[in-house]
Design a protein that fits this description.
This protein is α+β, with helices and mostly antiparallel strands. It has helices spanning 17-23, 46-59, 67-81, and strands at 31-37, 40-45. It has one domain (17-81).
Length: 82
């Protein structure tokens, strides 16, 4: 999906309706804006960013490990040794 927009004097951009719909963006969504290249931005909701982070972590986890429990155990060991 591609659309055209212009930056106004206040630095605001109106995302075309068809682009918002294609990206699953709704009025009131809190967005994360990241630079991903020269003159290129990525716009997504916090929920979309969280799902992507979960997909990345899932690639490195077998699914049978409880990473939270491991982290808590490590922190407790560190605290006990202090």
């Amino acid at each position: 999906m591609q659309g055209r927009a212009r930056i106004n004097q206040q630095g605001r951009i109106v995302i075309p309706a068809e682009c918002r719909a294609a990206a699953g963006l709704k009025p009131g969504d809190e967005l994360i804006v990241e630079t991903v290249g020269e003159g290129e931005l990525r716009v997504r909701t916090k929920e979309q960013a969280l799902r992507e982070a979960q997909r990345i972590v899932a690639r490195y986890s077998s699914g049978s490990r409880d990473l939270v429990a491991e982290l808590i155990a490590e922190r407790r060991e560190e605290a006990a040794s202090e």
